[in-house]
Amino acid sequence: MSGPVHIRDSRTGFDVVVVAASFGGPAALAAVLGELPVDFPAAVLVVQHRTARIDTVFVEHLRRRTVLPVRLAREGQQVLATGVTVLPARHTGIVDGDRLRLQPAGSARSADPLIGSVAAAYGTRAIAVVLTGRLDDGAAGIRTVKRHGGRTVVEDPASARAAGMPAAALATGCVDLVLPLHTISHALVALTMAPGAADLFRVPPASWAQFVA
């Protein structure tokens, strides 16, 4: 069982990081979350495409690999709970005030609604990360985050187990940082914890950027 849920310090640069992954995601998520420090200041929301029968196993997998608290999302929980909140399989989430509302979603299209809702709610204080996966879930969310002034980070397709999701995100022209898997955690730490880093890593969108699908 996880411990008490606490709310992060709102004085830091970013409130929330949404991380999306599909095929190859458990290992990629472990690599990213495993390098985040215990005082990482932003709430982390995770969307991983999987079947519902492994929800508990998946959460335990992440708990063993990070010093941050990890919990399975519950209806109505506070969005900015410290640590890592994992959405249930085949579900997405919508931000309602400061609460997370869970909604059923297809296994291949669960990241975009959550990322888009977080972007609309938190604007410049949101970060979206798209990791390995097939198809294109996360690309629409990346557009929305960039449109609202947040930061977007994508795993280099060359380091991804499956390049589909990272490549689709890159094709939007709305990505700030394209990084090998092993450096993504360092970028998140810099963005959220290093003074001035958020402004340093702001990248103007490409002239051909697609802010809407």
TrEMBL record:
Residues the record marks as active site: 22, 49, 137
One Pfam family in the UniProt entry: CheB_methylest
Keyword Cytoplasm: no
UniProt KW keywords: Chemotaxis, Hydrolase
The keyword Hydrolase is annotated on this UniProt entry: yes
Enzyme class: hydrolase
Entry-linked InterPro entries: CheB_C, Sig_transdc_resp-reg_Me-estase
Domain CheB-type methylesterase: 10-195
UniProt cross-references to SUPFAM superfamilies, sorted A to Z: Methylesterase CheB, C-terminal domain
EC number assigned by the record: 3.1.1.61
Domain of life: Bacteria
Chemical reaction(s) catalysed: [protein]-L-glutamate 5-O-methyl ester + H2O = L-glutamyl-[protein] + methanol + H(+)
UniProt-recorded name of the protein: protein-glutamate methylesterase
